Amino acid sequence: MKITVKDLTIQEKLRLVCGKDFWHNEDLDGKLPCLHMTDASMGIRMPDESNDWNGKPSVAYPSLQMLANTWNTDTVKKYAECVADDCLDAGADIVLGPGVNIKRNPLCGRNFEYFSEDPYLAGVMAKEYILALQAEGAGACLKHFCANNSEYNRLQQSSDVDERTLREIYCKPFEIALEAKPVSIMCSYNRINGVYASEYKKGFEILRKEYGFDGIIISDWGAVHDRTASAKAGLDLEMPFNEENYKRLVSDYNSGKISEEEIDECAERVLRFVYRSNKLQKGKKRKYTREERIAFTQEVVEEAIVLLKNDGVLPLKKGKSIAMCGWYARPCAYERKNPDLVCGGGSGKVQRLTPMFDMLEIMRRGHGGNILFEPAFSDRGTDDSFMIPGNAVDNAAASDINIVFAGTGANIESEGSDRQTMKLSDAQTRTILDTASVNENTVVVLFAGAPVDMSGWIDEVAAVVYVGFPGEKGGEAIANVLTGKVNPSGKLSETFPLSFEDTPAATGYADSKITRYDEGLDIGYRYYDTYGVPVLFPFGFGLSYSQFVYKDLNLKRDGKSLEVSFEIENVSDIDGKEISQIYVRALSSCVYRPYKELKGFAKTFIKAGRSAKVSVKLDMRAFEYWSVANDGWQTEDGVYEIIVGASCKDVKIKSKIKIGGKL
Question: pTM for this structure?
Answer without folding.
Answer: 0.97
